[in-house]
Amino acid sequence: MDCRTADKMIIRYIQRELDDDETAAFLKHIRTCQSCRNELEINYDIIDCLKALDSPGEDIQIGTGMEQEIRASYQHLRTVRFFRIVHYAVNTLVVLSLILTAMLQFRILYIH
Ligand SMILES: [Zn+2]
Q1: What is the pLDDT of residues 31-46, one digit of tens each?
Q2: What is the pTM of this model?
Q3: Helices and strands counted in the chain (H then E)
Q4: Which of 52, 56, 71, 96 makes the best surface tag, with the fewest CB within 10 Å?
Q5: Ligand 1: distance of its center to the CA of 73 in Å?
Q6: Which residue, among 80, 71, 86, has the nearest Cα to 27 in the 3D structure?
């Protein structure tokens, strides 16, 4: 992914509009590109400041929003990957059991 594409995705990432594959590609770019990371951090700092202004009684740490969101995104992607693996494993077992059942039926019907 180039910086231009990543820059266009920043607002969509913040608004959680990216799908899982887009999020993974975006985070991979952010990890290696300091310029885009700084841009993302500025956007989160602005959001944190606006939250602090909107709710003066609450203790909002400015500068922590981006790291929390990135950590949450990685956790979400790990969970999605885990369930994809479980899904593939279950599908494989179902197909293998259907093949085995068909072979046993064939044996019962034709080998006697
Ligand atoms: Zn970049």
Answers
A1: 999 999 999 999 988 8
A2: 0.73
A3: 4, 0
A4: 56
A5: 18
A6: 71
